[in-house]
């Protein structure tokens, strides 16, 4: 279990060396090729679906990376990405174990864009193989998976590897400045928060029964996605827990399946979280209601002001010490671009603090706590969740190993 001291490093404090001679002096030998110092990072992609295909272009556009390998369960998906970024046929790996062959091959870092169920196994193996890790949210679907990532992040630091979790909000200058001001005491003592995730997407329908098809439509399969609250709403819970900067003590949850009764994941949750010092967080999420304006919000009231944030809107503080902040703009792309650049900078500068890991573990555990409390239709404490260590197990029968 991560103790609270381990998870307190919430505010990103990534200060990077400029690209100077000093930078190259601490560069990993694998990044120095031939007679000339070369900071191009050789990358492998694990998970060649929607996000994987999309993000390969951003890594390319940065000019700091070269795609050399890719892996996906499906051959058609590795070939699409392989053709898109020019990966030779011998370095395209399919089936469940394809990622292991990728990790055995010569490259510096991996970008993991598979369904969340596989993140702990694949990220942990990547650290074992000595690769830097760029990991999509959510980090895991259950508490044991979260703790595996916490451990992998620590091992990465010990092995002088960079491990970055790609939350766009944490990369945004407005969120960073607003959070700096909250830490500075600008809204006073934290009293109460609310976080919401209404989402018009998500579709409807029963999860597929064919094992391979389940991998293609993993979002609808509880074991693969961790349910809506962990897979999607993690974005707002991550900001909410970033602000409060504590682990919740307990959650009281409810919810159900009303607009998508045939599914294996829920379409709405309402959770009240209790934190130390009587801080209370009221959280709701709802999916698949066409026409609902999407929102990824987290608002926290303090004794002297309120911080208000929305992924699709504005970040600002009102009260005794206001901060006008501003509009987040195209956070979806800009946040990923910042993370891609900071991942590279951390690699070449030898910065292995890996400060995105602990907050991602905390917010993911918070989502699992709310989900499990909801399923139980009542209260669940953080300590009980950790002690029970309930694992979601996917039946792999019928899939190619
Ligand atoms: N804003 C964001 O940060 C954001 C946005 C979208 C997706 N994501 C995350 O990115 C990840 C991928 O989502 P997506 O939308 O690209 O899904 P997707 O289904 O489009 O792609 C996932 C790919 O992984 C492959 N796959 C499944 N199991 C595998 C395994 N064991 N080994 C190798 N490949 C495997 C699938 O075949 C598929 O091609 C998820 O964690 C998701 O939450 C994050």
Overview of the molecule:
The structure is a single chain. The chain has 401 residues and is an alpha/beta fold. It has two domains: 21-169 and 335-354, NAD(P)-binding Rossmann-like Domain (Rossmann fold, 3-Layer(aba) Sandwich); 187-330 and 364-388, Dihydrodipicolinate Reductase, domain 2 (2-Layer Sandwich). The chain is 36% helix and 22% strand. The protein is built from 14 helices and 17 strands. It has helices at 21-25, 50-62, 75-85, 98-104, 119-128, 143-158, 173-183, 211-216, 222-225, 228-231, 234-244, 331-349, 357-376, 382-388, and strands at residues 32-33, 36-37, 41-46, 65-71, 92-93, 109-112, 132-136, 163-166, 190-199, 250-256, 268-274, 280-287, 297-302, 305-310, 314-319, 323-327, 379-381. It has a nine-stranded mixed sheet. The chain has a six-stranded parallel sheet with strand order 5-4-3-6-7-8, with helices on both faces. The longest helix has 20 residues, at 357-376. It is globular. It starts with 20 loop residues before the first helix and ends in a 13-residue tail after the last helix. Residues 1-27 and 32-37 have low confidence and may be disordered. Bound molecules: nicotinamide-adenine-dinucleotide.
